[in-house]
């Protein structure tokens, strides 16, 4: 059974940092591209970043230079280091993996950037 469990969200002031974690189980973690998405209230879910099995990385333009995606295959965990946070980064952040054309999502973790 595939499980993705996110943690690390919270309330942070503009300019602050957070690190999100997503612990995966039930998959051969190192084989798959892992992604972070986010969804703000009233908005569509959008891709934030992904990291492939060979550590090829891509970021949304809105987070380039501020966010870093990392994976630790030994811990079957993917991270999203978020620096210089802005109010517009406020959203629920979701971990995602596509296994043979079937998508799996975590439960999400809330990130709120506000003074």
Keywords for this structure?
115 residues; mainly beta
SSE inventory with pairings:
Layout: E1 3-7, E2 10-12, E3 18-25, E4 34-39, E5 46-51, E6 57-59, E7 67-72, E8 77-82, E9 91-99, E10 102-105, E11 109-113
Parallel strand pairs: 2-11
Antiparallel strand pairs: 1-3, 3-8, 4-5, 4-9, 5-6, 7-8, 9-10, 9-11
Distance between the termini: 40 Å
Low-confidence stretches: none
From the alpha carbons, calculate the radius of gyration and give it in angstroms: 13 Å
Strand content: over 45%
Helix count? 0
What does this structure look like?
The chain is built from no helices and eleven strands. With 115 residues, the protein is mainly beta. Strands 2, 4, 5, 6, 9, 10 and 11 form a seven-stranded mixed β-sheet that branches. Strands 1-3-8-7 form a four-stranded antiparallel β-sheet, with no helix packed on it. A hairpin with a 6-residue loop joins β4 (34-39) and β5. The chain is globular and about 40 Å long. The termini are far apart. The model has no long low-confidence stretch (mean pLDDT 97).
In short:
By secondary structure, the protein is mostly beta strands. The protein has strands spanning 3-7, 10-12, 18-25, 34-39, 46-51, 57-59, 67-72, 77-82, 91-99, 102-105, 109-113.
């Amino acid at each position: 059974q595939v499980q993705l469990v996110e943690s690390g969200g919270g309330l942070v002031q503009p300019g602050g940092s957070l690190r999100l974690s997503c612990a995966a189980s039930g998959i051969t973690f190192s084989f798959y591209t892992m992604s972070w998405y986010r969804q703000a209230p009233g908005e569509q879910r959008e891709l934030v970043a992904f990291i492939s099995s060979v550590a090829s990385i891509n970021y949304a333009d809105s987070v380039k230079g501020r966010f870093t995606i990392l994976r630790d295959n030994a811990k079957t965990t993917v991270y999203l280091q978020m620096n210089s946070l802005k109010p517009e980064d406020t959203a629920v952040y979701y971990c995602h993996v596509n296994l043979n054309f079937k998508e799996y999502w975590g439960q999400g973790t809330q990130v709120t950037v506000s003074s």
